[in-house]
Amino acid sequence: MRLELAGDWSLNSLGRDIDQIRRTLAQASPSTEWNLSAVARLDSFGAILIWRAWGECWPANVSLQPEHRRIIERAAAIPAGALPKTAAFSPRAAVASLGDALLGFVDHALHFVALLGQLFLDCIHLLRHPRQFPLAEVSASVYKVGVKAMPVAAMVGFLIGVVLSYLSSLQLKTFGADIFIINILGLGIIRELGPVLVSVLVAGRSGSAMTAQLGVMRVTEEIDALAALGVSRSQRLVLPKVFALMLAMPLLVLWTSAVALLGGALSAWVELGIAPSFFLETLPRVVPIANLYIGLLKGMAFGLLIALVACHFGLRVQPNTESLSASTTASVVSAITIVILADAAFAIATRTVGVVA
């Protein structure tokens, strides 16, 4: 028996008649002589189709073009059943998966504590040798994470202030309690929304950039080069970023809170008729100054956490692009989660501070 194949053996050409072609090829026997010399085009789909018709072994008599032989050889290299099958649920596998996740969390925690310890040692070293303080790196980082973030922080803060004031005024009008819009905006923005909003923005903007920067340095082996030169990676790479965020975050919180209050005051003026001058005059009386201190302290603490998380994931990047993208995503998600948990801890610890009874 002799079979001659000709024409275009690609997915686009064979797709409509694939069942008929398979039935025709299935009639071949091991002694069939195959002639593929007239095949004009052959892609991976056609090669796999022919290879399976051969029973996944080369026939005794076959003639084909050299380039088509290479395509079929590549198709033959694909193992049968290469597509993974979905495993059935198993309690043992579930426990093993939970254990792997727990071990991964412990590994991250240990490396995070090690990073904290190294940072503490670097601070002691700089106290003993203040001339080695990386002032240039810190000032450059403050400009990147602080000054460049001011426009977007102001825009988001202003809009949040307007929306919060507008929605609150709708409810306060119902009870004739228009004046309490100042309490709501002052306490909510200065104490809570300002620090949390800035932290989310900085984690997504600067935290991801820090992780990506350190990750690229890992991929290109620049960090290994620093170690070979005897330069402390934590002192030159981690410490400036931590100091920069601890300095820039309180200032960003102050800036964003001020712009958000401005937006809220303008919205209250339009909706409730409360003059901005009266708003600014009443704000210090109804919102104790302790709330501002709490907000600035939150900003500093959140900046420390964001920088540490970003550097932690950046230094753990493996030398491949997939690890870089995964670590950057994990850095942002982890930083935002930790900031929210820390904010909850602050709320519990300072529940009796700055609140007018």
UniProtKB/TrEMBL annotation:
PANTHER family: ABC TRANSPORTER PERMEASE, ABC TRANSPORTER PERMEASE PROTEIN-RELATED. This is Phospholipid/cholesterol/gamma-HCH transport system permease protein. The keyword Transmembrane applies. It holds the Pfam family MlaE. It comes from the Bacteria. Keywords: Membrane, Transmembrane, Transmembrane helix. One of its GO terms (molecular function) is phospholipid transporter activity. It comes from Azoarcus indigens. GO terms for cellular component: ATP-binding cassette (ABC) transporter complex. The keyword Membrane applies. The chain crosses the membrane at residues 149-167, 179-203, 242-270, 290-315, 327-349.
